[in-house]
């Protein structure tokens, strides 16, 4: 049941990002949540939520797909592909990223403890 629960949480998370719903997003993550963004920056929980509160970030589309979930006791690792159409401070920040979500199970169910996004691109010329 855990992988299905985590997949459902992922769908709710993506929908809340598109809606800019900081109440829902805030309830889905732990207090010590961290996001490592695709350029290596690190945001804590409040910084992550403030991007929506301030209007700096607008996610127009977010598709969380091809997700593989591995559960290790009360910790789960979900690795998938994160496709987004979004703007940050009026600039397009569309992209396709390999995304890792770290989740922890508590009394209230699964919550997200961390996310890490890495840009996906074509392999270098020597690897083709």
Automatic annotation (TrEMBL):
User: Residues in domain DUF4440?
Assistant: 6-112
UniProt xrefs under Gene3D superfamilies: 3.10.450.50
Checking InterPro entries in the record gives: DUF4440, NTF2-like_dom_sf
Q: Which domain of life is it from?
A: Bacteria
> What is the name listed in the Swiss-Prot or TrEMBL entry for this protein?
Nuclear transport factor 2 family protein
**Native species of this protein?**
Amycolatopsis echigonensis
């Amino acid at each position: 049941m855990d992988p299905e629960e985590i997949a459902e949480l992922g769908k709710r998370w993506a929908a809340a990002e598109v809606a800019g719903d900081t109440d829902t997003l805030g309830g889905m993550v732990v207090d010590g949540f961290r996001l490592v963004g695709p350029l290596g920056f690190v945001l804590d929980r409040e910084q992550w939520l403030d991007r929506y509160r301030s209007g700096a970030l607008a996610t127009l589309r977010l598709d969380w797909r091809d997700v593989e979930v591995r559960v290790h006791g009360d910790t789960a690792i979900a690795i998938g592909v994160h496709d987004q159409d979004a703007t940050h401070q009026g600039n397009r920040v569309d992209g396709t990223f390999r995304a890792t979500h770290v989740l922890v199970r508590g009394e209230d169910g699964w919550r997200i403890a961390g996310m890490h996004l890495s840009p996906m691109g074509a392999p270098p010329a020597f690897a083709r």
